[in-house]
Amino acid sequence: MTWLWFALGFWIAAWGLNGWLARSAHARRPGVRLLIPALFGVTLLILWEGIVRGLNVPAVILPAPSAIWHTLTGSVPTLWEDFRQTILKGGLAGYVIGCGAAVATAILIDRSPFLQRGLMPIGNFVAALPIVGIAPILVMWFGFDWQSKAAVVVVMVFFPVLVNTVAGLAASERMQRDLMATWGASYWQTLFKLRLPAAMPFIFNGLKIATTLALIGAIVAEFFGSPIVGMGFRISTAVGQLALDMVWAEIAVAALAGSAFYGLVALVEKTVTFWHPSQRGRT
Length: 283
What we know:
The chain is mainly α. The chain is 82% helix and 0% strand. The protein contains twelve helices and no strands. The chain has helices at 2-23, 30-54, 65-74, 76-111, 113-127, 131-142, 146-169, 174-182, 187-221, 231-240, 244-272, 277-280. Helix 1 runs antiparallel to helix 2 (30-54), helix 4 (76-111) crosses helix 10 (231-240) and helix 6 (131-142) packs across helix 7. The longest helix is centred in the first third of the chain and has 36 residues, at 76-111. The chain is flat, with a radius of gyration of 23 Å. The mean pLDDT is 82.
């Protein structure tokens, strides 16, 4: 029980420190803004460790963070191969193909009222289909390697990016489009000089949503067939072996990869849409 009381005491102290930092005059400084969530995360880990050790929770139910860290550091080659197979091959390839196809399709829809009225309702229907129903079919079509995972990711990311891009292309004001027409601009000149720049906040919103969907789709697809490597394969195998520490290690890698991917897209967004009020307000 000593661990439990220590964890509770640390959690209360850290909670008070976080509250003081959030209310202080230094709360907007970059270092403090990073310190607050970091301290909060460390607090949760210590509380987790204290509860597991203090209450003697079996490792097959919930392993301690120290056990997960030991597995994480001791299984780096295995975790790297799983990461490379699932994220770098299936997830990233599907993300690039799906998002690129979505933006191109949005431009076609923008030029064709028929596609706008016909394809968008079908897109909303397909986006509502459960991934656990689509994944086995795509695995049978494209095989057990990374191509089937990329196909699942394409299906998952395509329509969120498509919907956001279509909305973004309609975001420019009528007066701005009339001004471009007055200057004799063609459709493509108007698209690249006015409408696509105005649509960038919408497009990046879809791209950021797609980062998490790509990760989920690639991992879930591996539950329905994969070679003997991959994050989804490792999680399903480790669950069958009651090796929950390996399961949580894979989850930790997936969470870190998803956060880094999201942060990279957000950084590119900040660079591309520096002119937007939402970005100016963050500087």
